[in-house]
Amino acid sequence: MARLDQNQSVFRHLWFRDLAESSVFINDVAVRIRAGILLVIPLYMAFTLFDVVSGSHWFVTGAYIEDTFDTDFDGRILYHVEAIKRTFEYSKQTYVLFYALFEMLSGMFKMTSHFSPTILIGSLLARNTKPVWKPLQPKRFAWSIGTALIATCIVFFNPDTFATWVNRLSAHELLPTTANYMSRWVPMVSVWVCIGFMWMETVLGVCVGCQIHALLVRLGVLKDDCYACNNLTWD
Questions:
Q1: How far apart are CA 136 and CA 117, in angstroms?
Q2: Of 87, 95, 102, 88, whose CA–CA distance to 44 is shortest?
């Protein structure tokens, strides 16, 4: 019965300390578990990009490879083969990225957090561990960085669609629709930054985006709530 009540409380409150408080605090244990779950997505995208950049761009379709008994200028043997050039189709990757985008955005607000499967799973797995309460605002900033990196990858995998939207909105041909105008190193860097940040969150408990947020607060670029004022103890 106690376990049932505990699970019902998790379904109602998720990882929030108190849904009624003005300065929102969330359980960092559940956040780390969620980051570990979502780490699968950038790893999948890294393998995809590695295949695109480093993999073969040709499929050999013929039943045999015929030696031409000739060599090129570097002394390499030339062969006759039947092959077709690979065409890369990224609909699956795009769906995965849009889901990741949904996860980043849903965690930023109380209401939308209830629609996130990973927040629920992370909260359930953390229910028997002593909570570590952290303010939501720095996490929002960190997830905003993740949102920007995911959006960059979506544009890379769908350059023609994005270019069509931009050209229609601007009424000018600002971007080409027949070629990928984004260099391959841009999504590669974005994916590995995501992997690094999420690994540090999951394994080390270090939120790099939160650290950047704290630095910007010290510099006066951003404003932050008083942590001590909203986390009083009377021991």
A1: 18
A2: 95
Nearest alpha-carbon partner for 124 in 18, 3, 23, 205: 3
Domain boundaries, the chain: 24-54+82-224
pLDDT of 16 strictly over 50 = yes
Calculate mean pLDDT across residues 222-228: 65
What counts of helices (H) and strands (E) characterise the chain?
A: 10, 6
Write out the two tokens for 46. 């890294």
Q: What is the pLDDT of residues 180-216, one digit of tens each?
A: 788 888 888 999 999 999 999 999 999 999 999 989 9
The percentage of the chain sitting over the pLDDT mark of 90, rounded to a whole number, equals 46
Residue 147's pLDDT band, with cuts at 50, 70 and 90, is very high
Cα(4)–Cα(200) distance, integer angstroms:
33
What own/partner pairs with CB < 8 Å and gap ≥ 24 does 211-216 have? 212/141, 212/142, 212/145, 213/137, 213/138, 213/141, 213/142, 214/138, 216/141
* Alpha carbon distance 106, 112 (integer Å): 5
Question: How is residue 11 written in tokens?
Answer: 């379904």
Alpha-carbon span 126 to 33, nearest angstrom = 8
Distance CA 145, CA 194 (A): 9
pTM for the model stands at 0.81
